[in-house]
């Protein structure tokens, strides 16, 4: 999402009067440095999210209900990096828009839609983890393939409705009497659109995530006590049949807790990087669009960074994703010994022990 409301201070223009042409104001050296830095971020966003999509599509172990949301999220973030960030980069670095007024509207619509879709997917992941950790007995019923598919469709359709419709019809700027300089693509929004769009795109999903992860946190604390009790019982019983069953249950609980912890960290990163933008987005129309352009640039790119970080969070905290990434980057998925059904959760030591026990 973009909103460069403080364009006036950077283009030596003012509200009212005849529009003046946009003139780049940064030095050549600073533009080159910014291009290099932002291109590196765009590359990480595109490559990282492509790895997530490829890993889930190839490895059967990663094809779960939760990872259906993760894959769709990665598609949204991949498209943010591929078709939104490059044009935003040129506008940020040059201070001008070179792609015409029509594509400015299309780009703004894509920006709002894809960033909102990314946020919606994160709320669905939190909802999915809530049932997996807090209500495991009804999880399979609540998160059936049909329901997962329906939620993913909602994650794309609702952002489409609040972006392309209002923006292409000009409803987002109804009542705004501001003339933009020629060559400026500033996403000015009126108070009604700013409040409604921010509520739907950010604040309501944020509340869903916070409630879900608070309940998950409380359930994880209870499970930690249960795991401790099971470990004591297993040590007393020894490695008999009952002990093995308890050990399997203990490992399953640990995996669920670790997955919830990982997604909780992703949630925290999401709040850290998007909250400044949406807070300013609501406040700015009520202070007559006085927020400086550089502030909008910083907050906008902080939001984009969220799309770049998700793949690295998966790789750092999830062993299965980490192994899948290494296998893809090392082209090992093309080797005969790396079938799609390979167990990604096993370390080399675990795999050797399994072979010895067979």
UniProtKB/TrEMBL annotation:
Single Gene Ontology BP annotation: regulation of appetite
Known role: G-protein coupled receptor for 5-hydroxytryptamine (serotonin), a biogenic hormone that functions as a neurotransmitter, a hormone and a mitogen. Ligand binding causes a conformation change that triggers signaling via guanine nucleotide-binding proteins (G proteins) and modulates the activity of downstream effectors. HTR4 is coupled to G(s) G alpha proteins and mediates activation of adenylate cyclase activity.
Oligomer status and interactors: Interacts (via C-terminus 330-346 AA) with GRK5; this interaction is promoted by 5-HT (serotonin).
Membrane topology: Multi-pass membrane protein
The G-protein coupled receptors family 1 profile domain, residue ranges: 48-314
Domain of life: Eukaryota
Gene source species: Albula goreensis
Entry's Gene Ontology cellular component terms: endosome membrane; plasma membrane; synapse
Keyword Cell membrane part of the UniProt annotation: yes
Keyword tags: Cell membrane, Disulfide bond, Endosome, G-protein coupled receptor, Glycoprotein, Membrane, Receptor, Transducer, Transmembrane, Transmembrane helix
Protein name (Swiss-Prot/TrEMBL): 5-hydroxytryptamine receptor 4
Protein location: Cell membrane; Endosome membrane
Transmembrane segments: 33-57, 69-89, 109-127, 148-172, 192-214, 259-278, 298-317
CDD domains noted in UniProt: 7tmA_TAARs (cd15055)
Membership in a protein family: Belongs to the G-protein coupled receptor 1 family.
GO molecular function: G protein-coupled serotonin receptor activity
Main location: membrane
């Amino acid at each position: 999402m973009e909103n460069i409301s403080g364009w006036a201070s950077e283009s030596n223009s003012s509200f009212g009067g005849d529009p003046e042409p946009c003139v780049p104001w940064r030095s050549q050296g600073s533009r080159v440095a910014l291009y290099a830095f932002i291109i590196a971020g765009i590359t990480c966003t595109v490559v990282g999210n492509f790895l997530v999509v490829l890993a889930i599509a190839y490895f059967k172990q990663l094809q779960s209900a939760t990872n259906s949301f993760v894959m769709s999220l990665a598609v949204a973030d991949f498209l943010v990096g591929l078709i939104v960030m490059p044009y935003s980069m040129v506008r940020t670095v040059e201070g001008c828009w070179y792609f015409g007024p029509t594509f400015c509207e299309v780009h703004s619509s894509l920006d709002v839609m894809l960033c909102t879709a990314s946020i919606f997917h994160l709320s669905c992941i939190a909802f999915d983890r809530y049932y997996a950790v807090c209500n495991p007995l009804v999880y399979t019923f609540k998160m059936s393939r049909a329901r997962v598919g329906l939620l993913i469709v909602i994650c794309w359709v609702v952002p489409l409705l609040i972006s392309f419709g209002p923006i292409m019809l000009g409803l987002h700027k109804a009542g705004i009497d501001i003339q933009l300089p020629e060559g400026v693509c500033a996403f000015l929004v009126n108070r009604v659109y700013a409040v409604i769009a921010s509520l739907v795109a950010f604040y309501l999903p944020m509340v869903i995530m916070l409630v879900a992860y608070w309940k998950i946190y409380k359930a994880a604390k209870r499970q930690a006590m249960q795991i401790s009790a099971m470990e004591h019982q297993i040590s007393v019983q020894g490695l008999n049949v009952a002990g093995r069953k308890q050990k399997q249950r203990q490992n399953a609980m640990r995996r669920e807790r670790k997955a919830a912890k990982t997604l909780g960290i992703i949630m925290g990163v999401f709040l850290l990087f998007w909250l400044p933008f949406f807070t300013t987005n609501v406040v700015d129309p009520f202070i007559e669009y006085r927020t400086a352009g550089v502030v909008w640039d910083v907050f906008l790119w902080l939001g984009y960074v969220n799309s770049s970080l998700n793949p690295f969070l998966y790789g750092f905290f999830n062993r299965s994703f980490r192994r899948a990434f290494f296998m893809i980057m090392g082209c090992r998925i093309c080797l005969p010994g790396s079938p799609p059904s390979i167990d990604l959760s096993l370390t080399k030591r675990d795999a050797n022990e399994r072979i010895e026990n067979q």
